[in-house]
Amino acid sequence: MKINSHISSLPGSYLFQEIASRIKTFEQENPKADILRLGIGDVTRPLSPYVAEKFASAARDMATAEGFRGYPPGEGYHFLIDAINKNDYAARGIALQDSEIFISDGAKTDAAAIQELFDKDCRIAFTDPVYPVYVDSNAMAGRLGTFENGRWCNAVYLPSTAENGFVPPLPEEKVDVLYLCYPNNPTGTVLTKAQLKPFVDWARENNALIIYDAAYKAFITDEDIPRSIYEIEGAKEVAIECCSFSKTAGFTGVRCAYTVVPHQVTGRDNSGKEVSLNALWKRRTGSKNNGVSYPVQVAAAAVYDEQGRKETEETIRYYLDNARVILDALKQGGLTVYGGVHAPYIWMKTPDNMKSWDFFDYLLRNAHVVGTPGAGFGPCGEGYFRLTAFGSRETAQQASGRILNMLSK
Fold first, then answer.
1. Residues near 167 by beta carbon (within 8 Å), at least 6 away in sequence
2. What is the pTM (predicted TM-score) of this model?
3. Which end of the chain is flanked by fewer CB atoms within 10 Å, N or C?
């Protein structure tokens, strides 16, 4: 058989696999090292007790004849979809139909799968640096051409750097699909409504589609920063939005998310006929997805109850306080840092213009601290380094202190 050469030609390993490999090697050589991990964005705080009890209760119901549930509805149970619509959208003045919301096991899953709706010749644009899944999934489908000098030759890169205030420029060439993620992973920066509007206007003027990843929206504390792209007029005509309970409610090990595909979003088939992307996504989901289990969806719906909301918001504040601890310490140490205010990520400039993978190794060897090299997120990530706030308060304080102590020597 012939393999998919688009996968076999991907450069190296997935970013976080490479990080894990380097850590494993270091641990084998230094078995007594106390490693502090601020690399992968995995949560560490336990589930809300209220949400966990709803989860457990639903699981116990499954052990009874009356409460047992088999395959869930493909798009998700109505009780969860309704809770999402009322709390995340209607409460912010956004009118959506329940049929526009699809429940899944993760925003990463959906962000990777959504490209299946695109023609193989679609031109794809990414902000740079970028969450690797958007790039890799399109590369695997063969849309990005060959990987040369750190770039995919058919991809359009939009620099998002300190020089432009982390506001990427609009594409200057023909683009069919643009991926945006705000609050941003990896930079931790955000766009205001005024900064996001030009992207929506551009998409409408150019018949383009925006894939908007809002996985970190729960960390936003400023009302002028949109929690959904649909707060921008006209976005329901040109945008698909991916959201997640992973960081909002600590569901990285539970797995539940949702994607919004408005009925107004359309594309054209080979004959020029206009086609609903909502209908395509529903058809694709029905063929490839057996849905998210009943207990998990009950737990996700509990996040919107008064007690569930209170407890999950306490966890969000805890992580934001961790981010502030790291941010303040690094700033006091004279380092150049960004993000960390409306996001759980701190984006720091590597000292002395050190290459980001070199700094990764240097930091691991000398401070026993793990972060994520910026180069792993794209060409414009070179010279930067990502730290996460998803550890304990003690880890945030100790890691910050170790970094500053290392750099002062």
1. 160, 191, 195
2. 0.96
3. N
